Amino acid sequence: MTEEKINASLVILTKNEITGLNAVFDKIPINKINDVFAIDGQSKDGSKEFMEKKGIIVHSQEKLGRAEAFRMAMDLAKHDKIVFFSPDGNEDAKDIIPLLSMLGDDCDMSIGSRFMGGGRSDDDDVPLPIRGFGNKGFTMIANILWGGNLTDSINGFRAIKKQVFQDLKPDSEGFGIEYQLSIRALKKGYKIKEIPTYEGDRIGGQSTARTIPTGLYFIRLLLSEIIKGKRF
């Protein structure tokens, strides 16, 4: 008897992640989700060809950036429930189905939290985890300003309803889109849930997120959202 697939869209985000793909691809629940495709940021290492050989439809970005990949995915997704996954070793594929399953009448966006009990951030073992402090700080500010109780407002490993994404109209660039989605969802009173997730160490490739420039961008984004209020 064939197992019924979940009516949802799984978006695999790649940019030169061939090492990670080789390590984690078989753990991704491809056969449990109805709509699976990849958004590729002009990879030069064979990531695109790897996924195509695995039967995954790959859409190449013309305009680069994580935020643009999110927006592009919304236009391509066939279902209202959408989950984003990066096969770089940081995100745990076993949490894909739980994140999708949370979406429903009582949940509009679900986030894998690295800072809940049972979760883990990849810089937990670093003597001075500046990135972790920054993430927690930005989350605390968002909670105070917009009445949330989130533990990880920034993590990109999340699922969201397409109609909610479209209503929030995220227009940020790069890695700011996750924080902006969290902020705007809090502003509009959407229901957000979190599950603890284990962020493993990055496998191969190179992160394009730089701590200080990204932090400064988040500050500008935060100030912009304070000024805009609900006018977006």
Plain-language structure description:
There is one protein chain. The chain has 232 residues and is α/β, with parallel strands linked by helices. The chain has one domain: Spore Coat Polysaccharide Biosynthesis Protein SpsA, Chain A (Alpha-Beta Complex), CATH 3.90.550. Helix content is 37%, strand content 17%. It contains eight helices and seven strands. Strands 3-2-1-4-6-5-7 form a seven-stranded mixed β-sheet, with helices on both faces. Helix 5 (130-146) packs parallel to helix 7 (176-187), helix 5 (130-146) runs parallel beside helix 8 (211-228) and helix 7 runs parallel beside helix 8 (211-228). The chain is globular, with a radius of gyration of 17 Å. The model has no long low-confidence stretch (mean pLDDT 92).
Set down the secondary structure blueprint.
Elements: E1 6-14, H1 18-24, E2 33-40, H2 47-53, E3 57-60, H3 66-76, E4 81-85, H4 96-102, E5 109-113, H5 130-146, E6 158-161, H6 162-168, H7 176-187, E7 192-196, H8 211-228
Parallel strand pairs: 1-2, 1-4, 2-3, 5-7
Antiparallel strand pairs: 4-6, 5-6
What attributes does this structure have?
single chain; 232 residues; alpha/beta; Spore Coat Polysaccharide Biosynthesis Protein SpsA, Chain A; seven-stranded mixed sheet; 8 helices; 37% helix; globular
